Amino acid sequence: MKVRIYVAGPYTQGDVAVNVRNAYEMANRLADQGFAPFVPHGTHFWHMLFPRPYDFWLDLDNQFLPCCDAVFRLPGASNGADKEVILAHSQSIPVFTDFDSLVAHFAPKMASSEAAS
C-alpha cells in the first residue's frame, strides 16, 4: 500500500482558486514520488454544486486525516489547516512543512514496499 499524505493548507483565506491549485500542485509532486495524496480542497467543486456549512467540510476532512500516514502543511494562514495539524499531532501522525524532509522520512518504507511488489 502506498504512503498516504494528507495535504493541509489555506482554503478560504486569500484566493480560493489559487489555494486549490497550490494544494493540487503539491499533490502532483507527491504522486510523482509514489505517494498517495489526499487533497481536502477537492470538496471545493462539490461545495460549488451543493453548498454546505463550513463545519460540515471540516468534519468530513477530519474523517480522512486519521487514515493518512502523514500531513503535509502548505504555507499560509489557515485556521482549518492549523486544526488539522493539531488533530494529526493528537493521533501521532507526523506533520511536514518541507517536501524533501517528507520524502526522506518515508524513503525506507517506500523502498521496502517497492521491493515487495
Q: What do these coordinates show?
A:
With 117 residues, the protein is α/β, with parallel strands linked by helices. It has one domain (4-116): Rossmann fold, CATH 3.40.50.450. Helices cover 56% and strands 12% of the residues. The protein has helices at residues 16-32, 43-49, 54-64, 79-90, 99-116, and strands spanning 4-8, 36-38, 70-73, 95-96. The chain has a 4-stranded parallel β-sheet. The model has no long low-confidence stretch (mean pLDDT 94).
Give the oligomeric state of the chains in this entry, treating copies of one chain as homo and distinct chains as hetero. Answer: single chain
| Helix vs. strand class | alpha/beta
Q: Report how far apart the termini are.
A: 10 Å
**What's the level 1 CATH class?**
Alpha Beta
Total of helices: 5
The description of the largest β-sheet is: 4 strands, parallel
Helix content: 55-70%
CATH topology: Rossmann fold
What overall form do the CA principal axes indicate?
globular
The total beta strand count reads 4
- Strand sequence of the main sheet, in spatial order? 2-1-3-4
Mean pLDDT: 94
Order of helices and strands: EHEHHEHEH
Low-confidence stretches: none
Task: Quickly give the CATH architecture.
Answer: 3-Layer(aba) Sandwich
Strand content: 5-15%
Radius of gyration: 14 Å
Q: How many separate domains make up the residues? A: 1
